[in-house]
Amino acid sequence: MKKLLTVIMLLSCLFLLACNKENDEPLFVASDYSDINNWINVPQEITKEVDVFYLIPTCWGRMSEEEPVISEIDNQILRNYGPLAFNDQANVFAPYANLYAPYYRQVDSSLLAFTLEEQAEILSSYPKADVFAALDYYFENYNNGRPFILAGHSQGSNLLCYVLSEYMKENPKIYKRMICAYVIGYSVTEQFLEENPHLKFATCATDTGVIVSYNTEAEVVEGVNPVLLEGAKAINPINWKTDDTYASKEDNLGTNVFGEKMMNFADAKINLERGSVICSTVNPDNYVSTNSAFPKGMYHSQDYNFYYYNLRQNALDRIQQYLNS
Q1: pLDDT at residue 24, as a whole number
Q2: How far apart are CA 275 and CA 229, in angstroms?
Q3: Residue 50 in contact with residue 147, Cβ under 8 Å?
Q4: Packing angle of the helix pair 155-162, 126-141 (nearest 10 deg)
Q5: Phi and psi torsions of 304, nearest 5°
Q6: Any idea of the CA torsion for 128, 129, 132, 133, to the nearest 10 degrees?
Q7: Fewer Cβ in 10 A, N or C end of the chain?
Q8: Cα separation of 70 and 61, whole Å?
Q9: pLDDT(12) > 50
Q10: Rounded to whole angstroms, how far apart are CA atoms 222 and 297?
Q11: Which of 31, 95, 14 is nearest to 319 (CA)?
């Protein structure tokens, strides 16, 4: 009942905003990305031939049910935890790319309790407006024509799906410079790709202009994985195959555990029926999320960390392939 009331209130607010806007004004006014304070990271010096534009996962949660479902851009919780997510995930690309990461107004994790249609309506308001505005500012002021990688996790990857399906479709000249989109921790489905024929899913370790996506799970998940959608596609982050060829923990180039490199830790095999990457060599008891939306056996927070050095090598491989071609 509380969830129903929350979504009714939110959608009612969005409807009223739509009714009150003048026809020539944007429906949802975006945050100001000329303000450097609205960026988690902008390089002080350009030292690489390639950029990464990274969207953080959910880093904000309501302190009470009376709070709005969408944060303000300057929310202190968002400002505290956004840089931590950036350091944990985006730095995987740091040796080979200039890193750009905006803050954006986020929906808290209650988003996962809504239907997909409700999620789409909510994310298409202020979160998408902010992300698209950040992209506009990045391409107009920072990118200078360099090839780029898109990367995200969880809510950030959910929003990357809008970037790929809408922003890149509307900006084909920009899209031609995209080396890869790492849409990790959310689902890229067969239906999504059918609806967006300009997009391609990765098939190996070195194809470019493609999407890389997967969700990591244990062999048994004790509940519903809310980010694993029907028809999800996955690529194995160790052997970069899309079939169910097994990749052992010995083949893993390294796991990142609290900043330390660990070898022979996580294996990977695609469950073709679920569309997820199964890790069988990790004890799920050690990775139980404090978020009740994530059941035991769902390695959502470890999507980057389990295969950290494989992702780093893969980014280099795709960058070299793009530049050499």
Answers
A1: 53
A2: 8
A3: yes
A4: 70
A5: -80, -45
A6: -150
A7: N
A8: 9
A9: no
A10: 6
A11: 95
pTM reported for the whole predicted model: 0.93
Query: What CA dihedral angle connects 283, 289, 293 and 295, to 10 degrees?
Result: 10
Q: Are 43 and 93 in contact (CB under 8 A)?
A: no
Of the candidates 209, 50, 31, the one whose C-alpha atom is nearest the C-alpha of residue 129 is 31
Residue 10's pLDDT band (cuts 50, 70, 90): low
How far is residue 231's CA from residue 192's CA, in Å, rounded to a whole number?
Answer: 9
Report helix, strand or coil for 39: strand
Q: What was the pLDDT predicted at 13? A: 47
**Distance (Å, rounded) from C-alpha 269 to C-alpha 271?**
6
Which tokens sit at 249?
């923990």
Structure tokens at 58: 């959910």
| Portion of the chain with pLDDT greater than 90, in percent | 83
Asked if 187 and 213 count as a contact pair (C-beta separation under 8 A), the reply is: yes
Calpha distance 103→31 (Å, rounded): 9
What is the per-residue pLDDT for 111? Answer: 83
DSSP 232: B
Amino acid letter, residue 121: E
Contact partners, residue 6, CB within 8 Å, separation at least 6: 65, 69, 110
Return d(Cα 232, Cα 281) in angstroms, integer: 23
Residue with tokens 């890229």: 188
CA 284 to chain CA mean position, Å:
23
DSSP code for 91: G
Q: Which residues pair with 18 in a beta bridge?
A: none
The pLDDT value given to residue 26: 67
